[in-house]
Amino acid sequence: PYQCSQCEKAFSDDSTLIRHRRIHTREKPYQCSQCNKGFSRNTNKNDLLIHQRTHTGEKPYQCSQCDKAYSHKGHLIIHNRIHTGEKPYECSQCDKAYIQKGHLIIHNRMHTGEKPYQCNQCEKAFSQKCNLILHMRIHTGEKPYQCNQCDKVFARKSDILKHQR
């Protein structure tokens, strides 16, 4: 067995240990030639190849029920649940169910009160990362949405949409 010197985890072969060590070293030897984004592995899901589809626009996974297409097979699997009605991720505390595991995790925070995303400028905390990002715009003054009819700028997409009606 091959053992990691940092966390004592054991592996049956050297190549798996080498790949594992990248967790500790943060080494990302596989780089996108378009944007230089790095990846720690180039096996199994072929992360780099999938990432490169964001640049090429290639979407080889086509839904057989509608015109949607995806760059990643997993995204098509999740999309297909819209057509089948399948919601495999069920809350153990209420009757809610979701098509994605991440949606259940966010929902469970409503029951637990967990707010893992904390503002480093004030004491506010949030259950979802997107809400922290929106909140941070209060501190930074960032307003990324500009009206194409006038010079007004907005911090939230919903605000510019209201303005443009």
TrEMBL record:
One of its GO terms (molecular function) is zinc ion binding. Keywords: Developmental protein, DNA-binding, Gap protein, Metal-binding, Nucleus, Repeat, Transcription, Transcription regulation, Zinc, Zinc-finger. Residues 2-29, 30-60, 61-88, 89-116, 117-144, 145-165 form the C2H2-type domain. SMART domains: ZnF_C2H2 (SM00355). Its main location: nucleus. It is found in: Nucleus. GO terms for cellular component: nucleus. Signal peptide: none annotated. The keyword Metal-binding applies. GO terms for biological process: segmentation. Krueppel is a gap class segmentation protein. May be involved in transcriptional regulation. Belongs to the krueppel C2H2-type zinc-finger protein family. This is Protein krueppel. It comes from Meganyctiphanes norvegica (Northern krill).
